[in-house]
Amino acid sequence: MQGFELVFIAPRSRRHHGTGVIDAIAKLARKQGIKRMTRRVDAEGTGAHGHTHSAHFFELADEPEELMFVLDRDEADQLVAAVRDNAMHVFCLRRQIEYWQFDN
Question: For the chain, what are the domain ranges?
Answer without folding.
Answer: 2-98
